[in-house]
Design a protein that fits this description.
Length: 343
């Protein structure tokens, strides 16, 4: 059962996007395996605070015999771990050190254990009138890495190699850790009841929501007003160079025709700065303009989307107009309009 889905990515950093995608892939495999399970509860993007410390757990699995904390890592290239548990990764042939995801997950585990131990009365039942403890529960940590990474498992310490798993195998590894009811009964493992599983999930969701609300209140706290600014004063910003209207294709803002002079070009030659003597062209790498003054070619793909900052756009042509669309947020905007009489 998925108690909290993976949150959507709201940043503009490309590296952050791929890290988020890795977490989405892990969430997909966990949902496919345990989405309908009453015995397994999964929370993604869980933020916890206790004793002045704060941690975000990528994926938390709560099962009848304990907890599994999964740290996701988007890694391209190769990974090695030495005998001391120190991690290094390669990128385009260059090796560099990186923090240990296993150690990170262990610190999250310790904080989660402390938080739950401080709230046992509302989470677990009593046995013969004595409050049940968390002792004997199974606490496991895993690191889920990108499926394309090359892992040098033969050089890893056994304790690390057992905890590192590629994305497509993460659900199977979780299933292996949980085991089956027969083996657990033979080993006499302490077991959470369905009510206790419900209590644990509800408590953690409530805890995260409370701290998120407190954080948002702090972030939204108004700044102190200066003597020259009254409470009714509304700051006035400079007008944008272009006004925007919603395009019928996507509903996202696009340039308003009223904001542009007829025949205006939004591109200039990257070599000489020419803005008028340009001709729209199409070649091996997509649409571009050719400068009639210096014969330089300039791509129509802008450095980044003006709406979200994403650096990947696609350009399409409709008559004399060339429009760019962001591959991330689908925002569309005019990049060039061919002057009349030009091919």
């Amino acid at each position: 059962m998925i108690l909290k889905e993976k949150e959507a990515y709201s940043g503009t950093d490309e590296r952050g996007y791929y890290g988020h995608k890795q977490e989405q892939d892990v969430a997909f495999h966990l949902r496919r395996e345990f989405g309908d399970s009453e015995q397994v509860r999964i929370i993604h993007d869980l933020v916890i605070e206790h004793g002045g410390e704060r941690a975000q757990i990528d994926h938390l699995v709560i099962h009848p015999y304990g907890f599994i904390i999964i740290e996701s890592k988007s890694i391209v290239g190769e990974v090695q771990v030495n005998a001391e548990g120190e991690w290094s990764r390669s990128y385009k042939g260059n090796w560099s050190g990186m923090p240990s995801p296993i150690r990170q997950a262990e610190l999250q585990k310790d904080l989660l254990h402390a938080l739950l131990s401080n709230n046992l009365a509302r989470l677990l039942g009593k046995l013969l009138g004595i409050q049940t403890k968390l002792g004997g529960r199974d606490w496991q940590t895993l690191c889920a890495v990108s499926s394309t990474v090359i892992l040098h498992r033969e050089k890893m310490p056994r304790g690390v190699a057992d905890k590192v798993v590629k994305t497509e195998f993460v659900a199977g590894k979780v299933k292996e850790i949980i085991g089956n009811g027969v083996s657990a009964f033979i080993k006499v493992k302490p077991r959470f009841t369905l009510l206790e599983l419900e209590n644990l999930g509800s408590f953690l969701l409530e805890h995260a929501a409370t701290h998120q609300a407190d954080t948002e209140k702090v972030e939204q706290k108004p700044e102190a007003q200066t003597p020259s600014q009254s409470a009714d004063t509304v700051p006035v910003s400079e007008p944008a160079p272009l006004s925007y209207v919603a395009t019928p294709e996507s509903g996202t803002p696009g340039p308003s025709a009223e904001s542009e002079a007829p025949g205006e070009t939004l591109l200039t030659c990257k070599q000489c700065g020419e803005a008028d003597n340009l001709t729209g062209m199409y070649g091996q790498y997509g649409y571009y303009v050719r400068c009639g003054s210096c014969s330089t070619n300039t791509t129509m793909k802008q450095p980044s989307c003006p709406a979200c900052g994403w650096k990947s756009v696609r350009v399409s042509k409709d008559g004399p107009s060339y429009t760019a669309a962001c591959r991330k947020c689908d925002h569309q905007y005019l990049v060039y309009r061919q002057a009349e009489g030009k091919a």
